[in-house]
Structure formats: structure tokens, C-alpha cells
Design goal:
Elements (H helix, E strand, L loop, with lengths): L19 H10 L8 H14 L3 E5 L2 H11 L7 E5 L4 H8 L4 E5 L21 E7 L8 H11 L2 E5 L7 E2 L2 E2 L6 E5 L12 E5 L5 H8 L5 H5 L19 H12 L1 H18 L1 H6 L11 E2 L5 E4 L3 H13 L15 H6 L1 E2 L5 H9 E4 L7 H12 L6
Parallel strand pairs: 2-3, 2-4, 3-12, 4-5, 5-8
Antiparallel strand pairs: 1-9, 6-7, 6-10, 8-9, 11-13
Bound molecules: pyridoxal-5'-phosphate.
Length: 385
């Protein structure tokens, strides 16, 4: 694995580890490139090892894994699904597509995760599930979320797009919900361009999940010789990825430790190198509570306000450093207003942090010199207090 020294420091860049090109060539030559081939089996086994998941199905994206979870929940129009407002659109879209109502809860000011203390007030007799997002791979307060869900008979789903390799009280993220959705999009720690997986802890969901992923047919059972012909047995869609993508993913998963070591080195260098500057300039750094391990998925800073956030991004761009921001809150987005509902008390923390957040470049191919350059450029910005 080689790191790069670039004239500009991009926000993200695909890192090619040891075997991607070889496995891609093998996948193309193996005679069949459709889904559920040999590389899909290899990648699935590696993913189960990493997450401790009872069952895993590769999908074409995290978005699609979330959509599968919504179908598996048998949501009816008007059912409610509690989730943070501070997340990517797919978290809400997957359930809105089934006619369910996303109910948006504010985030905690420290981890930016759903504020577990606000969930109970959002529960109604239509609530069916709570979807948590482990922002930046720092776990939500899962003990509290699971206790509340058990009390009200709600399913817990993890949108674990950021969390591969993260832990909560020594247990891997992705293993807390009855279902968890992974992303292997190009910006994720382990990636195949576009890809994802649905992790299932509940063995009772596996047979139906296979059918939903195969266009509503029992084709998986047919290929295992369990039925003589396959037919349309349920609703579903085309959620299984080509074995070519699984080949890329297999190589990335095999290099997980290498990738993580590089990402953690860059994350830690940012955290230490910017701490004094952050304190002097009223900038907040990420908070990782002691009982969690994060997977160095992203490094963010909270500037004092929107004006400084925009000026800081422009300042970094001048220095050849590409930084960016996210998420736009969902509760007051046009589709959020149309399809969702906001929990009592609104989402003031979400609105505040969404204006202040900046993400620094973080990818496994980022060299030490690039990290030093980003730190130096950031330190050159004066926000004052
Ligand atoms: C929290 C979260 N959920 C879901 C997704 C969607 O992932 P994908 O692009 O694999 O569909 C993203 C994408 O970045 C995300 O950040």
C-alpha cells in the first residue's frame, strides 16, 4: 500500500491495496459475473468476522440495505420510524418509500448522535422502529436505546454506514440491531465504489431477506437445490451486487487492518495537531466517550458559526486542501417536511451543528506530509472567540 504526496490534498481518494486489480481480473475471467459468486461468499465471510453478524447479505448500497430493512419490518402507511435529523437522506428515504413517517429527533451536542434522552417523547402508538446512526463511527448510547426499544416493543435498526470497525463497550457496531446496514461507497473505509450489506442478527429474517434481495423470488433457494424452480413469492427488488464488485470488496476487506492503521494515524495527528488551535479559536473537536472505539471514519471540526465555517473551507481551498461539510438537517428539508414529523422540542442542536461542521480530508492513502499540510493550513485560520 502506498501513500501519496499530492499538489492538492483531495477530500477523498480511492486507495488500491494489494489485491484489488488481481481479484477484479479473476472475477471477470471466472466465467460468470452475476451476484452471489465466489467473491461474494469470500467478502461476506470477512464481513461477518469483522462485525460478528449472524448473517450478512451484500447489497448494491447501504441505501438498498435500509430499503430491505423497511420491507422486512412490514411497515404500513402511517407507521412511524424514529431517527435522527442529522443524517444522510437514505436513512429517512428507505422508510418513507414504504409510506412510513420518519420522526426526526435532535442529536447530542457531544457525539452528534441521536439524543437517546429525547426518543421516548417521540414514541406514539404508531411507532414501529428506532433507527440509529453511529455518526463518524462513534456509537450511539446503545444500552439506553435498546432498553427503551424493548420497553415499547420497537425494532432497533443500525444505519452503520460509518461504523465498520467501531465498538460500543467492546461489542462491534452492526451487532446491536435486529438489522444493520453497511455502506461500501467510495468514501467509506472499505469500499467497492458503490456497495453495501444488510447484517441480520435475527435468523428468522434471513429467508425473507434473501427473497427480497432477489426481486421477490426464491432464486437463492433454487440455486441451493432446495426448490425445483424459482418463482415470484414476495415483493422485492434487485439488491444483489455483481461478483465483480464483491471482488474489489474482498481485497479491501482483506486489507482492513492496513487501511485502519493509516486512517487512525491521520485521525490522531489531526486531533493532537489541532487541539491547541481549536481551544484558542472556539472550535470543537470530535468527542469519543471512553466506552467506545471509533473506526477513524471521518474527522470533523465545529467552527464557531456558519460564516466561519464557510470562510474556513475557503481558507483551506486557498491552501490546496479540499474540505467539505454535511449533513443538511432532514426535519426541515423539503421532503422531510412533506413526509416526516419532528419530535417535540424540534432539532435546535442539529440546526446548529449542521451550520458549523467541516470535514477534513481523511483516507487511507493520505501521506504524513499531506496530513501535516492540512494541519498547518487549518492552524493558519483565526476564528477568534
Ligand atoms: C449515515 C448514512 N447512511 C446511509 C448512507 C448511504 O450509503 P450508500 O451510498 O452506500 O447508499 C450514507 C452515505 O454516505 C450515510 O452517510
Amino acid at each position: 500500500m502506498s501513500t501519496t504526496s499530492l499538489t492538492e490534498v483531495p477530500f477523498n481518494r480511492t486507495l488500491v491495496c494489494d489485491n484489488e486489480v488481481r481479484y477484479l481480473a479473476e472475477a471477470v475471467r471466472q466465467g460468470s459475473t452475476c451476484g452471489d459468486g465466489p467473491f461474494t461468499r469470500r467478502a461476506t465471510a470477512l464481513l461477518r468476522e469483522l462485525t460478528g453478524a449472524g448473517h450478512a447479505l451484500l447489497t448494491t448500497s447501504c441505501t438498498h440495505a435500509l430499503e430491505m430493512s423497511a420491507i422486512l419490518l412490514d411497515l404500513r402507511p402511517g407507521d412511524e420510524v424514529i431517527m435522527p435529523s442529522f443524517t444522510f437522506v437514505s436513512t429517512a428515504n428507505a422508510y418513507a418509500l414504504r409510506g412510513a413517517v420518519p420522526v426526526f429527533v435532535d442529536c447530542r451536542p457531544d457525539t452528534l448522535n441521536i439524543d437517546e434522552r429525547l426518543i421516548e417523547a417521540a414514541v406514539t402508538d404508531r411507532t414501529r422502529a428506532v433507527v440509529v446512526v453511529h455518526y463518524a463511527g462513534v456509537a450511539c448510547e446503545m444500552d439506553a436505546v435498546r432498553a427503551l426499544a424493548a420497553r415499547y416493543g420497537l425494532a432497533v435498526i443500525e444505519d452503520n454506514a460509518h461504523g465498520l470497525g467501531g465498538f460500543y463497550r467492546d461489542r462491534p457496531l452492526g451487532s446491536f440491531g435486529s438489522m444493520a446496514a453497511q455502506s461500501f461507497h467510495a468514501t467509506k473505509n472499505v469500499q467497492c465504489g458503490e456497495g453495501g450489506a444488510l447484517l441480520l442478527q435475527d435468523a428468522g429474517l434471513v429467508a425473507r431477506a434473501e427473497i427480497i434481495r432477489e426481486k421477490g423470488t426464491d432464486r437463492s433457494r433454487f440455486f441451493r437445490g432446495q426448490v425445483a424452480k424459482y418463482q415470484w413469492v414476495d415483493i422485492g427488488s434487485s439488491y444483489l451486487p455483481s461478483d465483480v464488485l464483491a471482488a474489489m470488496l474482498t481485497a479491501q476487506l482483506e486489507s482492513f487492518d492496513q487501511i485502519q492503521a493509516r486512517r487512525h494515524a491521520a485521525w490522531q495527528a489531526y486531533h493532537e495537531g489541532l487541539s491547541e488551535w481549536a481551544a484558542d479559536n472556539g472550535v470543537a473537536q470530535p468527542v469519543v466517550p471512553d466506552d467506545r472505539q471509533h473506526p477513524a471514519h471521518l474527522y470533523y471540526l465545529l467552527l464557531p458559526g456558519l460564516h466561519h465555517r464557510q470562510a474556513f473551507i475557503a481558507h483551506l481551498a486557498e491552501a490546496g486542501v479540499q474540505a467539505t461539510f454535511h449533513y443538511q438537517p432532514l426535519h426541515n428539508a423539503p421532503a422531510g417536511l412533506r413526509h416526516g414529523r419532528t419530535a417535540p422540542g424540534g432539532c435546535p442542536v442539529t440546526e446548529n451543528v449542521a451550520d458549523r461542521l467541516v470535514r477534513l480530508p481523511l483516507f487511507a492513502g493520505l501521506g504524513d506530509a499531506d496530513v501535516a499540510r492540512v494541519i498547518e493550513a487549518a492552524r493558519g485560520y483565526r476564528a477568534g472567540r
